[in-house]
Fold each of these.
Amino acid sequence: MSEKKQPKKISLAKVFVYALLTIASVLSIFPLYWMFVMATNANDAINRVPPAFIPGGELVTNFTNVINTIDFFGAIWNTLIVSSVITIGVLFLCSLAGFAFAKFEFKGRNILFVAILVTMMIPPQLGLIPQYIIITKLDWLNDLKAIIVPGFIDAFGIFWMRQYISSNVPDELVDAAKIDGCTNFRVYWNIAIPVIIPAFATLAIIKFMYVWNDFLWPLVVLREESSHTIQVALRGLIDNYVRDNGMILSGTFWATVPLIIVFLLLNRLFIASLTEGAVKS
């Protein structure tokens, strides 16, 4: 008689881990679901006790009110331009600076790197007045350049890239490329960049989400409605006398959808790149 296969035993620890992950996932998704529920209900359904816990039928009405109140699509377009340009600029400039700090020896390198790290400890609000004066003198008020240009340099991005390049780009590989006649930029472009794609994906997610959600600086320098980013535009949904929570949450929900899509795309790229980097010959 053939031996019967014994059923696999599921350990108690594995059950606990999966249960914990399931609970954490539900708790993470619930705020987004709750925002969607409020975006699909009328104001009276949101304000009653207990509030509605299932989606309603006011999604189109609430979003129509959003479009009639603010230039929603124009603000989304402005935010997409600003977030994309800043993210691309940060990835290039910060990786270039990180490569220089990690692989080049030059006078004052450590002092300059420490100075960059010190700037991470300074609250960004302290730089609002000097930046505003500079932007005013450059005549960049109500122009997206007022957000894009100051956003190109990121101290955390330089630190992140320097640490990643130091750990994952061997000095021997850089030296061999230089012996073969490669310039410093070609070593960066052909040797470093293919290795640091996971770092690119991680920094892109962080920077894109930060710029997309930034409110204070765009509020200061973008006064005309045609130049508003989405976070500044959403402020126009709040009325001092009558607050339509369904309309507000509808605008907030649809403003979050592009961010979720970009995050998922970059997250997949990050996981794939990290998996490739984990395979060693």
Note: Residues 12-64 form one domain.
Amino acid sequence: MVEWFKKALSEDWEVTPAGGLTGEAYFAKKDNKRLFLKRNSSPFLAVLSAEGIVPKLVWTKRMDNGDVVSAQEWLPGRELRPAEMQHQRVADLLHKIHHSTELLHMLLRMGKKPITADDRFQSIIKRLIANQLKDASIEIQDGIKFLEANLSTARQQKQTVCHGDMNHHNLLLTDDSQLYLIDWDNAMIADPIADYGMLLNSYIPKEDWNGWLQKYGVQLDKQLLIRMYWYLIADSLSFLSFHYERNESDKFEERIEKLKELNIQLALL
């Protein structure tokens, strides 16, 4: 694969794997120049770059076999620390993404369909039934009951571009203090609470939720909490099927415990 990427470059570039599960990303270095290379990245990358959400896209090249190589600026920096997810700049970046008409129009032109709460619910139930998990535990049954009972509330939101994997590993803080959100493979059009609900639940103490949401630009109320937990439980049920299908029993049990915790929190709403 290294030699394949070298074909997209002029001579004398040093190409090394960037890590990750897919093996589709590489670093390239020549003198003082550095690039981040990726194979068959989404056309969405160009709009993300233009909006300043990811590092600058330098070029794209179509190879003889039809594959496309994209090259982005490689910027020295680090991933955001978990405690830094509370900062205003994270809320500002998410707000910018969720309110960008350019990003939304590009995903729609690419053929992405908005994912409604009804779509999500039906997909989850179908997958649980296929894996014979629908009645496998009280935690799963309680989660399904909550999703069904609150489906009408989950419908009540304008859909926007969502990243789909809001964790601190995907936020790059450069040495010159620029913040970028990277790894857009899970991009979707959905309720934006799918992004910031995940962030709140994973990184922000409950007593600080209202403050963070004010930074983002929304008010905390009962309806918002119901929508947030709706998507958190939907994620948990989806991951249960995911781990079951891969025979990952330890991760499956961890997800059951997390689902149990969410169900307990629901009782306190």
Note: The chain has two domains: 2-74, 79-267.
Amino acid sequence: MSETTSVQPIDEVKDPVQKKSTELNKPQMPLIIGGLTVGAILMIYLMFSQNIVQPLLLVIGLLLGYTLFHARFGFTSAFRRLMSVGNGQALRSHLLMLAVAVTLFAPILAIGYSFFGSGVSGYVSPVGVSLLIGAFMFGIGMQLGGGCASGTLYAVGGGRSVMFVTLLFFIIGSTVGAYHLPFWTEGLPAFEPVSLATSTGLGYGGAWILSIALFGLIAWITLVVERKKKPPKMAPKPSTTGWKRIFRGSWPLFAAAIVLAVLNALTLMVRGAPWGITSAFALWGSKVARFFGVDVASWGYWQGNAAALETSIFADSTTVLNLGVILGAFLASAAGGLFKFSKINGKNVTASVIGGLLMGYGARLAFGCNIGAYFGGIASFSLHGYIWGIMALAGTFIALYLRPLFGLSVPKPKDSFC
């Protein structure tokens, strides 16, 4: 693509210091040692201050972040490539990830118990105005902000400077969204949550068959679109062979898709709920607001969960997962010799501010982001996950016309991209 490094989103940019697409850089050993030290200190702290779940979730989060960065597994770029030039390669990796996820989630949800004997529940949320608007906003926001929720975290871990701006305003937007949420959920029309398994009478076996059929249909549609539009293929990323590829060099998207699905299922089994990201942003922002005297405990969003405002953020499982993702991405980038703070400019900072606000606010309205609503929702057999994906694609389409205003390019039929 013709973008400069300063405006490229993390899930689309080529490795900043590579000379050839097949070359690997030397591992940045001081950074690796520093990252492992920080991880060990955090692990020890969690082991002595929290229950066993939190250290386990830190490890899972670290593996999630390592996988995301290692494969440059993107949601933002996958949607953009499909909507701009009709390339569905990355979206098909999503479908593989979802197929593995529903296969693992089905028996876990049917049995109903985690590793530690507590109940498990998927993400099944209402379909209403808040979902439609929130997912649409998120779709626009992730295209302007340079990454989705998971993309923002692993971009921060990889040193993409402008993504720190996106993260900050993601947190602000999520906090404002939490404050406004009762207006969207109590005052506007919505249907009750719909589970393909429990609301339809299909059971988890029937819902699994239906889900696999839907994934196959969507994959077939993307292939039809590709045959018609003949879009450019995704360029190869630097990698190696043999066992070294586990630690260095880019993973194939299909491998990352499987690993992410397995790790999400492990998250469900460890904490009783799937992987999520943005609820922690609302918590962080609300704690800061409370420090400055705002009565956040009176917000409808915190009714029934006010205890989270009183305890340490390290008691919040989503916070621990997020920290693990950032640390895992940092280690992956250092192992590949790729960690480097990038330059920023006024245009991409402005895009990050707007994108972060839209994603944060939209995620609260839509009951989650690309991870909690799209990945976790569909894996949990929730209808709202599919609706989220459709509306985020619609937001992506609108964002294709907005990106050039901020110096962000849009893939063209003759472009090549990674």
Note: The longest helix spans residues 203-229.
Amino acid sequence: MYFFTAVSDEIQPTRVAFHRLSRTKHLVLGAVFASLAALFQAAGGMLPIIGYLISPLATAPLLLCSMLSIGLGCIAYLLANLLLLILQPSELIVFPFTTGLLGLGIGASFYFFKKRLSIIISGASLLTAGIAILLYGFKFPVLGPSVSGTFSYPVFGCIFLFSFFYSWIWVEAGLLYLKRLKTIIAS
């Protein structure tokens, strides 16, 4: 029953408080979220070991921004890609298809779906599609050299299972962060 509970009602008060802000504050908040996403993603290339632990956090700013407003989330996603073009162009291959797409997709799915399971599955589907495009379409070894670039059903299934659990973690983290963001927006 946990997966079938409605979660969209939990974020509605935060959206209402966000939409009461001025248009300027919306744009500033979107720019801050985009810069954080770009900095977190660029950390993977700039900081040798710790950066790889920091770069998955690039999902969080886009997730929160998209949960508040889909339009602002799309703008933040595009702006983060442009900032990565300047900061760390090598990360521009991975970000639009993995962490950025996951944050944008989960945040937008909070608008379209009410149940936790459908939000998680939509995020997992987008992440799986992004990884598959990189791995099988562009032949980019996003999962390392041990995973072949030729299509395999077991590998694809493992990618989806990983994406499901990863998306589940981000849905729960997004709900937790949005509750804390509500107090900041309200003040």
Note: The domain at 9-186 is CATH 1.10.1760.20 (Arp2/3 complex 21 kDa subunit ARPC3).
